[in-house]
Amino acid sequence: MSHFDLSRSQALWNRSHLALESDEVLTQILDRGELEAWREIYRLASGPGEEAAKLRRRILRICQTVPLSFPHLFIAAMGALGERVEPYPSVPPPADDLA
Question: Which of 65, 73, 85, 67 minimizes the C-alpha distance to 41?
């Protein structure tokens, strides 16, 4: 199975390059990315190292502080990867009617 090139994600339409270390860029991918981009983020977050653990924690923090279309999807995914999550987490309401 090949990896999706996140720099080609439709979510980054207003970016000149991928800067995944930026919370703003990660938020754009979580909120407006396509399924392939979400799968690639999950693949990166499922790694064994500290970078993957840091990415999982960032995703959880973003889901609980920034209005996203599907925050519970990403929270559940991070829970499946071993992160401790609340059973009924409080999340901001979505900024649009996609959810």
Answer: 73
CB 12 within 8 Å of CB 36:
no
3-state SS assignment for residue 70:
coil
Q: Is residue 19 a contact partner of residue 25, using CB atoms and an 8 Å limit?
A: yes
For the stretch 6-55, pLDDT in tens is 999 999 999 999 999 999 999 999 999 999 999 999 999 999 999 999 99
Q: What is the pLDDT of residues 55-79, one digit of tens each?
A: 999 999 999 999 999 999 999 999 9
Closest-CA residue to 98 (of 77, 73, 64, 62) = 73
Q: List C-alpha distances in Å: 22 to 11, 25, 41, 82, 99.
A: 14, 5, 14, 23, 24
Cβ neighbours, 10 Å, residue 61: 11
CA 73 and chain centroid, separation: 9
